Amino acid sequence: MAEVRDEVRAADATPPVPTIEPLSFPAHVELLEFFLARRDAVVEKLQELLNAQYKPPRYLQDRRQLTRDFEECFFTLPDLGADRARLKGQLEAAHWARGFKPRDMGEMPNDLLQPAGLMERAFVMWAHTRWPSRKARVRHAHILFNVYLVRQLALLAMRTWDAGAGGTAARLAQAQRVLDAVWRGASADQPVLVRDVRWLIPVAMSPTTDDLAPYFEVAEEIGANFADDDRLTILSATVRIAGGHLRSYLQYYVVQKGQPLGDSGLVLLTRRSNALDFSLLIHGLVALLDAYERAVESGEREKRLQFADAICQGVSPDPELFINRVDLLAAYTMVEHLFTTTDDDGHAAYTPLGRRHVRLLEEYKARIGRLAKPLYDDCRSFRPAEGAYSPYGVLYGVASNIVEHIAFKALHRDDVVPFGLEDVFVAGGADKLAWVTGWRKLPHIDRRLQRLYAFPFALAEALFARVEQALRTRATDEEGIGAARSGRLHVVAADDAEAASNAAAIPDLPVRYIGSSDIRVVAAGKAKAWDKKQIADARMEGHVAVSYETPGGWVAVTKDFLSEVLGAGRDAKVVGLPGTAAERLRLMCGVLVVR
User: Fold this and answer.
1) What tens digit of pLDDT does each residue of 443-454 get?
2) Phi-psi map region of 25: left, alpha, beta (phi>0 left; psi -120 to 50 alpha)
3) pTM value > 0.90
4) Where are the beta strands (DSSP E) in 276-324?
5) Distance CA 11, CA 204 (A)
6) What is the mean pLDDT of the chain?
7) Distance CA 178, CA 156 (A)
8) Which residues pair with 342 in a beta bridge?
């Protein structure tokens, strides 16, 4: 039990912002410009690397070795110099040190724009079809060169505010200048992967990590360090990308697992699993709702629709929760070990991150209530149309996967369409639909698998219809009079006979919502048996409403009761919760908990 105690206590401690060695932003800009000036020399080295049909199969699938060989094409240039050579790996190291090191997820890809990964996949494709000629290899090498530069720019964009707000705009402009130069120097047969460097900030944070705190710290820093236009562009990209990621999660279960969209089990699974994404969506949505309201008041039609589009995409993974059940949403977005702590007097209290999040929740609740009507009026402009493209049907894992899809498709086809990352989140015509649908139409991929990833118009239509319906419901009931009533969880102290008597008619919270690693608690029938890893993982991922230590282990209450019990309008009670745990549960669930 000592091991799980250590893991949980470590999770309870608010992690300090790591000390990051200061980087020279101009030096990294100059390094990328140096590579751009020697594009042809690097591309020649890369095309030689791609001429690998006679290399052993083991080498062709050794991503670490391919990564080393790929980077050598850049860092063995004869006039590189020692100062530039020392910059190798610094941006990645700083990003990882900040807490964004991708989690090892086995065979599931989870990394940030790895050209070596694209090479590995290309070798598989070419082995099943035919190996490219030298002319084709040069073209492919240009694409991989561009992917590498975009990756470095994504890492560099995360360093624009290291020195504080002063000069942030200038540093962002420098990074944009390099990105513009990437495409200005590219030939017409190269896909423009992303045009706006501000979109690379959410891309850089898209791989799954072990630590949740850095995401909230960065969200706060974006609000503090960027001018209004830059901040809103970054947050709009973040909200659109997060909404698309969560819709993709739904599509996976609906299309590939055959679960109905409204299935109660699927609702529980996604709400339980999405604490981080839901929380970060609140951070972005508050700012976008504020900008949307200003655009409505000023009559700026184009801006109004742009913000409405982003907001609707943001709430689309669970519109009923985001629009009509904000009391439940608030509890789902809370992350116990990040947002609550114990003060010097032994009482539960919010951390600074928690206080900020609670303020944002209150602001979100007020804004979504008064803006539901104009949002409903505007949302009909985004309804999916048969034969056209809608972002409600796009399917991907994390944002960097989209850039990789675009690049990898270009390794197979010579014709390039004029769309990039930003275009994925804006509706379009048949040409854009064909482009997105074609990402996985590759000669070595099984037709059955291609059908699984085909654009699901019916599902896109259904996902959007849920947004429209939720907004319609809220717009016609601005005061929330007709909103579904949420139940309450009554917390009763074990030694309070009067409270126990008053709550006697209220059913106990079912044991299935409580897990414990304490064998005595489980033997007494007060919890289901959870092992130490289940407890630690559930807490770290934000899946629990509260957890506490017992003499023999830990107890955790999962968030599933929020929907299945309170969301259904039923009350429940829990007896004997320790005092600090009861206080923490109240902080986590707000008005849903009664002591």
Assistant:
1) 888 888 777 788
2) alpha
3) yes
4) none
5) 24
6) 92
7) 11
8) 348
